[in-house]
Amino acid sequence: MLALAVQGRFRHEQSRRMFQQFVPHSYAVLWLRITRLPEKPNFTLRSPNHRRILGPMSWVTDRVAYDERMERIDKTLQSLPYTPAPPAWLSVWEEINVSAQAAVREFNHKKGSEQFRVSAWPNKSVIMEVISLPAAHRVATLVLQVTDEQTGDLGLTCPPVGEGIGRRGKFRMRDGKIKALENFVGVPQPPTTPMTAAEFVRFILEPLLFRTK
C-alpha cells in the first residue's frame, strides 16, 4: 500500500511539473486549487478568496432581477385601459370656452341681469351655445361646434337677427390659435391672420352682445 501511495504521489508531481511547463503560472495555481478540492466541496462562499473570484458574477443576478422587474411592469401596463392622448386643439377649445364664459358673465353683470347664458363647459362638450334670455324666449343665438376632431375645425352659426342675414363660417384651431377658413358669410368678416382664443371670442360675441341698431 505504501508503495502504491508513493507511486501515485510521484505521478501527481510529475503531471504538475509537465503542466507548469506549458501553462502560465496563474492558470497552474488555479489547476492546483481545483485538483485539491475535496470530494464534497463546500460552496457556502465563506472563504474571502471564493467571494473575490465569484464576486464579478453578481451582474448576472442584477440582470435577472432587472428582467423580472420589467416583465412585471409590462404586465401591469397591459392590464391598464388604453387612454388615447388628447388632441392638440383641445387646449385652444378650453380657452375659447373659458373666455366666452367670462365675457358673457361680465356682460350680464354690467347690465344688471342675466341676458345671455353659455351652455357648455370646458372638457365636457365640443358644442358651445350662447342662449338669449329671458327663459320664456330662450333662443340659441350662437352655436360653435367642433366639426372635425382630426383637424380641429370649428363651425360657427349665428341665426339672423330681424331682417339681416346670419353669420356662419369655418375656422381651424392650430398651433394654439384660430384661423378663419374661406367663404365666411356675414359681417364683420374675420381677420386674415390667426387669432388667439380671446380675440376669437370677441369676434364671435361682440356683434351678438352689442348689436348695432
What does this 3D model show about the protein?
The protein has 213 residues and is of the alpha+beta class. The chain has 2 domains: 36 residues; 120 residues. The N and C termini lie far apart (132 Å). 45% of the residues lie in helices and 17% in strands. Strands 1-2-3-4-5-6 form a 6-stranded antiparallel beta sheet, with helices on one face. The relative contact order is 0.08.
Topology of this structure?
Blueprint lengths: L1 H21 L2 H11 L12 H7 L3 H22 L10 H22 L4 E3 L8 E6 L6 E10 L4 E6 L8 E8 L2 E4 L16 H13 L4
Antiparallel strand pairs: 1-2, 2-3, 3-4, 4-5, 5-6
Helix pairs in contact: 5-6
Sum up the structure in keywords.
213 residues, alpha+beta, 2 domains, six-stranded antiparallel sheet, 6 helices, 6 strands, elongated, disordered N terminus
